[in-house]
Write a structure and sequence with these properties.
mainly alpha; Endonuclease Iii, domain 2; Endonuclease III, domain 1; 12 helices; 229 residues; 2 domains
């Protein structure tokens, strides 16, 4: 594939970076980011230590990402805690035997039930191979994932960050990130997705660390000020 997926300029010429699975690795990426963009020094100072977000890879991981779409962290966590206890829910073969009623009883919407079902069908059919992502660049991996029904750019990018620990992905359509970047960089207006893509391009090859940093910034601001940015 020669063209980059939305939000991910071609990174094939960039040196590979360690995966973001430890506090120390994230800190080293953020240190590099501050060197690239000194504005991020103040963001880092306010946000404090940034923890890794590590979810299992494969079918379980993407189901968990889908579970959390357009939900608060607390709501997503509560629904997932019920979903993972549902017998057969965490395996694509057995998931296909579950009724919509059973899955929706955990808190999944009908749309999320059908999306996970389409993914399970693709995995069982062999057309969706999560191990194949390990051989792809970030933009190729996003393009591969979004080619499957129900997987949009945000889902693909968050999967790559949290489940594949890819170091250079930025989910430019994430509302919390857009709000945090506006506030943290002192922008006059919330950036559009296109503008956010352009801003994040300057943070390559450390865009995943930038996303983690701004999510942490958003959380600290929300908790300290009692407001959503």
């Amino acid at each position: 594939m020669n063209s980059a997926a939305p939000g991910l300029p071609n990174t094939s010429q960039l040196a590979p970076s360690p995966r973001l699975d430890t506090v120390g690795t994230i800190a080293s990426h953020i240190e590099a980011l501050v060197g690239i963009d000194p504005r991020l020094a103040a963001v880092r100072g306010f946000a404090g230590e940034v923890q890794p977000r590590v979810n299992p890879p494969g079918f379980v991981g993407i189901a968990k990402v889908i579970c959390g779409q357009q939900l608060s962290v607390a709501s997503a966590r509560a629904i997932w805690s019920r979903f993972e206890l549902l017998s057969g829910a965490l395996d694509p073969v057995t998931y296909l035997s579950l009724s919509e009623e059973a899955v929706r009883a955990t808190g999944f919407s009908g749309g999320k039930f059908r999306t996970v079902r389409a993914i399970a069908e693709a995995v069982v059919a062999g057309t969706l191979d999560f191990d194949h992502l390990e051989t792809l660049s970030a933009e190729e991996a996003v393009a591969y994932l979004v080619a499957h029904k129900g997987i949009g750019p945000w889902t693909a990018e968050v999967y790559l960050m949290f489940c594949a620990q890819h170091p250079d992905v930025f989910p430019a359509g994430d509302l919390a990130l857009l709000k945090a970047v506006q506030h943290g960089l002192g922008l006059d207006a919330r950036p559009t997705i296109r503008e956010m893509i352009a801003i994040a391009a300057g943070w390559a090859p450390h865009r995943s660390a930038a996303a983690l940093l701004f999510w942490r910034y958003f959380a600290v601001m929300r908790d300290r000020e009692g407001i959503l940015l």
